[in-house]
Amino acid sequence: MTREVRHEATTPAVFDESDLADDGKLFICQCGLSSERPLCDGSHRATEDETEDVVYRYDADGEGRRIVEAIELSEE
Known about the structure:
The chain is mainly beta. It has strands at residues 2-4, 55-58, 65-68. The radius of gyration is 15 Å and the shape is globular.
């Protein structure tokens, strides 16, 4: 499976003790869907039923997704 994810960050993330979970761990988003990026907010649960070899695009609000039939790149 593949996800189209758009990021607007242009600088590195800086973490401190306030970002740690109660168990002392730091959970970093790897699915690209967290509204608290770069920290995980559990949004990855929406990807549990994704199918291999399918490209998905998730709504910015996390309320839905669609299958991307084709990706066309501009020559610009």
